[in-house]
Amino acid sequence: MADDRPWLAAYPEGVPADIAEPTRALTANLAQAVARFPERIALDFLGATTTYAELGDQVARAAEALRRLGVRAGDRVALILPNCPQHVVAFYAVLRLGAIVVEHNPLYTPAELAHQLADHGATVAICWDKVAGSANVPTIVGVDLTAALPLVKRLALKLPLPPARKMRAEMRGPLPDGASSWEELVAEATPIAGSVPGPGVDDTALLQYTGGTSGTPKGAVLTHRNLAANAEQSRVWVPGLRAGGETFYAVLPLFHAYGLTLCLTTAVQIAATIVLLPRFDVGLVLDAVKRRPPTFFPGVPPMYDRLATAARERGTDLSTVRYSISGAMPLPPKTAETWEALTGGLLIEGYGMTETSPITIGNPMSAGRRTGSIGIPYPSTHVRIADRADVDRDMPRGEPGELLVRGPQVFSGYWNLPAETDAVLLPGGWIRTGDVAVMSDDGFLSIVDRVKELIITGGFNVYPSEVEDVLREHPDVGDVAVVGLPSDRTGEEVVAVVVPAEGASVDRDALLKWARERLSGYKAPRRVEIADELPRSQIGKVLRRQVRDQLTSN
Question: Which DSSP symbol is given to 369?
Fold first, then answer.
């Protein structure tokens, strides 16, 4: 039943069954951090630091600068930025005005960006100057990443040497005609007057585009209540977090929902120091560890694997990392084991989606975490495993069905897409996740696969993840994606695209035979294709749709 919460018995001491519903906008969390910990380092960007007092002042000036540009409550403002201090300032400045942040990947092609900009209709875009020419909006504000660097690095960039020229080319670009400089606008502005109204808790805070792995991206509408609730849920999920005493690493991109919540809004909620890195680079991360050791590290499995290998080779001490969270893809047991041995801390797997701010489920941050499971629902979060053909009917425990979620973090719908909204939001506040899951008797959940990526061959259901897990056990397989391709005989046939392990070669026939020995006949791949790499999203998730499209186009 929907109100049956067997998972509560697995909550560690100090984790409440429910959170207090947010009553204030997300901006109140920053104001509280500024008031309580003004001298604490809020941001560290490659060694350049900003205190919470300085961050609050910059946000107030940036809000006034944007107000002078004509930004008002309800307006959409596009952010096209990598992780940098200006990104954090712009995010909170837009919110302070009651306007709506729209996050964009700065590595998008002009065509990808054009679709989203046209969809939400922003008239102002705050862009990394290197990509500002791709933003077709009336008002462009360019951000110079080098302006946020430590003084010694800024001076080094001016040297007439090849390394300096290369770094300048990587970090800077010319602004389009008519564009303004972010740094100049903020420096010239006075702090915004307190009389300028701020946002309400139920106002829209963020448009986050999603759906790129399965179709045309859609703008998920998230309110201040949604985002503040998820930050609070994430905070209480880890009772050991200390206000004003943690160092969060922002290696995940802030333009992605996972990075925005765990690396920014949850960090600000407890006045943590945020170590910002413009991109994931093992060398940059380990250099930062020596300068400002992390205590909380959100990431994805490939990050943990690469960091663990490099840390062992360099002898880098990671023992300050007490808590780590993995998402976006399954967490291999070996990855968790290696990381926990290196850090002495805990690495748990969680689950979420953009439409839920994004986190809804996580393993307990305790010895009770369970390998192979995405965990148990967050506080104030309810789940059901429903019959996909009749979502009003719950499946028996242990049987697969579609995962439905309800909680204060669930979005209000897709931007200007009522039909798509009605397809996923059900009466009672439930959202259809599109994921097939099973629930154990004690409430732990495991994802079987995506509904849309289910392969139906000869009338039988094949879950790609199950086949991939088996193939990954082969020593010659480094990575794999399993998809269904059209078949006149069976409707769809199971095809595996394999990236060989380092130094290995894959014998197709031997791998097919190996799979048939470990899987039911209808689940075993009929074909194996070899690839140098698999297409991935910006946070490393394999894009099966693109794999399938590449195979069909060939």
Answer: -
Distance, CA of 98 to CA of 27 (rounded, Å): 10
Give me the domain span that covers residue 318: 1-23+224-451
Q: Could you give the dihedral angle defined by the CA atoms of residues 272, 29, 89 and 297, in that order, rounded to the nearest 10 degrees?
A: 30
Q: Which of 135, 163, 198 is the last residue of a domain?
A: 198
Residue 290 CB contacts under 8 Å (≥ 6 apart), including other chains: 316
Are residues 426 and 390 part of one domain?
yes
Token representation of residue 23: 């009553």
- Specify whether 251 is located in the same domain as 185: no
Asked if 170 and 69 sit in the same domain, the reply is: yes
Q: 3-state class of 497 per DSSP?
A: strand
230 in the same domain as 99: no
Same domain, 393 and 247: yes
Can you give the three-state secondary structure of 51-99, one letter per residue? EHHHHHHHHHHHHHHHHHCCCCCCCEEEEECCCCHHHHHHHHHHHHCCC
Q: Per residue in 349-402, pLDDT tens?
A: 999 999 999 999 999 999 999 999 999 999 999 999 999 889 999 999 999 999
Global pTM value = 0.87
| Contact status, residue 436 vs residue 253, Cβ threshold 8 Å | no
How many Cβ atoms are within 10 Å of 426's Cβ, its own excluded? 16
Q: Does any domain span residue 303?
A: yes
Q: Does residue 427 sit in the same domain as residue 492?
A: no
Closest CA to 494 of 482, 502, 480: 482
Q: Are residues 152 and 234 in the same domain?
A: no
Are 389 and 519 contained in the same domain?
no
Contacts of 491 (CB under 8 A, 6+ apart): 456, 457, 458, 459
Residue 270 sits in a domain whose CATH number is: 3.40.50.12780
Q: CA separation (Å) from 157 to 150, 162, 187, 287? A: 11, 10, 22, 19
Per DSSP bridges, beta strands 527-530 and 491-500 are parallel
Contact indicator for 27, 96 with CB cutoff of 8 Å = yes
The H-or-E segment that residue 18 falls in is none
> What total number of domains does the chain contain?
3
CA distances from 444 to 18, 300, 522 (A): 18, 21, 28
Domain-embedded: residue 45:
yes
| Window from 147-161, 371-385, 422-436 with minimum mean pLDDT | 147-161
Residue pair 379/325 in contact by the 8 Å Cβ criterion: no
What does the pLDDT look like over 293-305, one tens digit per residue? 999 999 998 899 9
Report residue 67 CA to chain centroid gap. Answer: 29
- Torsion angle, CA of 337/341/345/350, rounded to 10 degrees? -20
Read off the amino acid at residue 403: L
CA–CA gap between residue 273 and residue 44 (Å, rounded): 7
Residue 54 lies in a domain: yes
Token digits of residue 205:
């805070």
Q: Contact, 134 vs 95, CB < 8 A?
A: no
Residue 398 within a domain? yes
